[in-house]
C-alpha cells in the first residue's frame, strides 16, 4: 500500500506525541526509583510538549489537505497514551503509590474516563462547534502536570500553598479524581479552534505570552486553572438560573 508523503507529515507529529508520552512515563519511573524531583518535572514538560505536538498534527493536516480517518483514529490513540496513561502513571509514581489501592484506583480511573471522553468526542457531532462537552483530555493532563511543576518549583511559596500541598499529597489524588470526572461531565468548555482574530485578541495573546516567558509554569497553571473554573462556574450559574426561572413560572401559574 502506497502512502503519499504529504500524509506522513501530520502523522509524524502524532507519533512524536506518543513518543513524548512514553518518555514521560520513563522519567516518572526514574523519579520514583531515584527520589529525583527533576525527573518528575522533566516528565511534566514532556507531556506539555506532547500537547503542543498534538495541536500541530491536526493543523498541519488541514493546511496540507491530508486529513484522513486513519489520522483521526491515530490521534485518538495518541491522546490516550500521552494524556491518559502518561499523566496517570506520573500521578501514581509522584504521590499515588503512597496511598496503595486508592492511588491505583484513581490513576486507573483517569485513564478509563479519558478514553471514554475521547470516544464520546469521536462519535458526537455537536452543532456548537465553539465548545467542547466535557473537559478535553489534553487540558486535564496539562493541569495535573502544571500543578506538579508549580509545587516543585515552589512558585506559590509566598502564600504557603507549595508547602501546604506538598505536605498533603492526597490533594493531588483528589485533583486527579475531580479532573477525571470533569472529562465525562456535560459541562461545556470553550474551543478556540475557530476564533476570529482581531487586534484585541492579538494584544491579549502578546500579554499572555509575555507572562508565560517570565513565569512559564505559574502562568500556564493559572491559565488552565481559570479555564477549568470557567466551565464549572458557567455550569453552576446556568443551573441556578434554570431553577430560579422554573420557580418563577410555577409561582406565576
From TrEMBL:
It holds the Pfam family CDP-OH_P_transf. InterPro entries: CDP-alcohol_PTase-I, CDP-diaglyc--ser_O-PTrfase, CDP-OH_P_trans, CDP-OH_PTrfase_TM_dom, CDP_ALCOHOL_P_TRANSF_CS. It is an enzyme of class 2 (transferase). The keyword Coiled coil does not apply. PROSITE patterns: CDP_ALCOHOL_P_TRANSF. The keyword ATP-binding does not apply. GO terms for cellular component: endomembrane system; membrane. GO terms for biological process: phospholipid biosynthetic process. Its main location: membrane. The chain crosses the membrane at residues 7-27, 39-56, 77-96, 102-119, 131-150, 170-189, 201-218, 224-245. Belongs to the CDP-alcohol phosphatidyltransferase class-I family. PANTHER family: CDP-DIACYLGLYCEROL--GLYCEROL-3-PHOSPHATE 3-PHOSPHATIDYLTRANSFERASE-RELATED (PTHR14269), CDP-DIACYLGLYCEROL--SERINE O-PHOSPHATIDYLTRANSFERASE (PTHR14269:SF61). This is CDP-diacylglycerol--serine O-phosphatidyltransferase. It comes from Helicobacter saguini. The lineage of its organism: Bacteria, Pseudomonadati, Campylobacterota, Epsilonproteobacteria, Campylobacterales.
Amino acid at each position: 500500500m502506497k502512502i503519499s508523503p504529504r500524509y506522513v507529515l501530520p502523522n509524524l507529529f502524532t507519533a512524536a506525541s506518543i513518543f513524548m508520552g512514553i518518555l514521560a512515563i520513563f522519567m516518572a519511573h526514574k523519579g520514583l526509583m531515584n527520589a529525583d524531583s527533576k525527573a518528575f518535572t522533566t516528565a511534566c514538560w514532556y507531556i506539555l510538549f506532547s500537547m503542543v505536538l498534538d495541536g500541530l498534527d491536526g493543523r498541519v493536516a488541514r493546511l496540507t489537505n491530508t486529513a484522513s480517518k486513519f489520522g483521526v483514529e491515530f490521534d485518538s490513540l495518541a491522546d490516550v497514551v500521552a494524556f491518559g496513561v502518561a499523566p496517570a502513571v506520573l500521578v501514581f509514581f509522584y504521590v499515588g503509590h503512597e496511598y496503595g489501592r486508592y492511588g491505583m484506583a484513581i490513576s486507573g480511573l483517569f485513564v478509563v474516563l479519558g478514553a471514554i471522553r475521547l470516544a464520546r468526542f469521536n462519535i458526537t457531532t455537536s452543532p456548537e462547534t465553539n465548545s467542547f462537552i466535557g473537559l478535553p483530555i489534553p487540558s486535564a493532563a496539562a493541569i495535573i502536570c502544571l500543578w506538579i511543576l508549580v509545587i516543585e518549583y515552589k512558585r506559590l511559596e509566598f502564600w504557603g500553598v507549595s508547602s501546604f500541598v506538598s505536605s498533603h499529597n492526597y490533594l493531588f489524588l483528589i485533583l486527579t479524581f475531580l479532573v477525571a470526572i470533569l472529562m465525562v461531565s456535560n459541562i461545556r468548555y470553550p474551543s478556540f479552534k475557530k476564533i476570529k482574530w482581531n487586534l484585541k485578541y492579538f494584544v491579549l495573546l502578546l500579554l499572555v505570552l509575555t507572562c508565560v516567558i517570565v513565569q512559564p509554569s505559574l502562568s500556564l497553571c493559572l491559565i488552565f486553572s481559570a479555564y477549568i473554573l470557567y466551565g464549572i462556574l458557567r455550569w453552576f450559574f446556568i443551573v441556578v438560573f434554570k431553577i430560579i426561572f422554573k420557580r418563577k413560572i410555577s409561582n406565576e401559574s
